[in-house]
Amino acid sequence: MRKKHRKLKRESPLCYIVMAILALVCLLPLLMILSASLTDEVYVQKNGYSILPMYPTLDTYIFLVANKGEMLAKAFLTTISVVILGTLYSVTVTTFFAYAISQKKSTFRFARILSFFAWFTTIFSGGVLPWYIMCTQYYGLKNNLFALFIPSGINVWNMFILRGNFREVPEELIESAKLDGASDAKVFVKISIPLARAGIVTVALFNVLSFWNDFFLPQWLITDSKYTTVQKMLYSMLSNVATLLNSSSSTATMALLEHITLPANTAKMAVTVLAVLPIVALYPFALKYFVKGINLGGIKG
């Protein structure tokens, strides 16, 4: 036992060093993105990217706000609405489903059937085309706010994590509450949900990340600019800049580019910062729930 303890003690500093190196490796791209967004476009074209901003300037951000400021504001408002509504909807559906399949057969006889259906969808899929037809022609999920979160209402992996959290609730506590006259609904609201709070927060965090970064639903189900999200808006902005730079066949465009340096490289970094910054600001506050929820959900999941 002493030898094992000494061995673990000797290896601990090495583990910390390895983890610190891995953290720096993950942090380095973010620092380079932020640095490039604050660097002069001409310097980036000549010398490439660097960890620290060279010739710091806010010209790229000013360019984006001046040309696409109103559209960016609408896109952010739409995305924030989708994140809030989608997270509430998804967490509610996932919580009810996870709690149902976590029950014993004597309590809810369809628990195993629902669990099998959830597991089955992780292996087999009907395909994108049938999904698109169902969403647009049968459910009316096209060019409206609901199309941006209803199709992603439940994630099976998140559901199984939450199921593991519900299975961690002591059975004695539930039996005691039922002996005192508590109904199944009261046990769910007063006991199971508070004790599974870490898992619920974890699932909510996953949904926030998913809805904020989602590009496929806006791309497939949205053609009206009124419902453009941040991700689709930023992609369109980058496409427009690239199109302008590549359309140098006309004499007028070539003359314009001789006097103006469009922030093509730094714009990519700037829009990336705009997309990542809200999530980076939110993540530290939910980190403790994130780790705890994953650990609890993996014990009996």
Please characterize this protein's 3D structure.
There is one protein chain. 74% of the residues lie in helices and 0% in strands. The longest helix has 43 residues, at 59-101. It contains 13 helices and no strands. With 301 residues, the chain is an all-alpha fold. The two termini are 32 Å apart.
In short:
This protein is mainly alpha-helical and 301 residues long.
Mean pLDDT: 79
Please report the number of helical segments: 13
Total beta strand runs: 0
Major pleated sheet: none
Defining key terms:
single chain, 301 residues, mainly alpha
What is the element layout, followed by pairings?
Blueprint: H1 2-37, H2 41-47, H3 59-101, H4 111-121, H5 128-138, H6 156-167, H7 171-179, H8 184-195, H9 197-213, H10 216-221, H11 230-246, H12 251-259, H13 264-297
Helix pairs in contact: 1-13, 3-6, 3-9, 3-11, 6-9, 6-13, 7-8, 9-13, 11-13
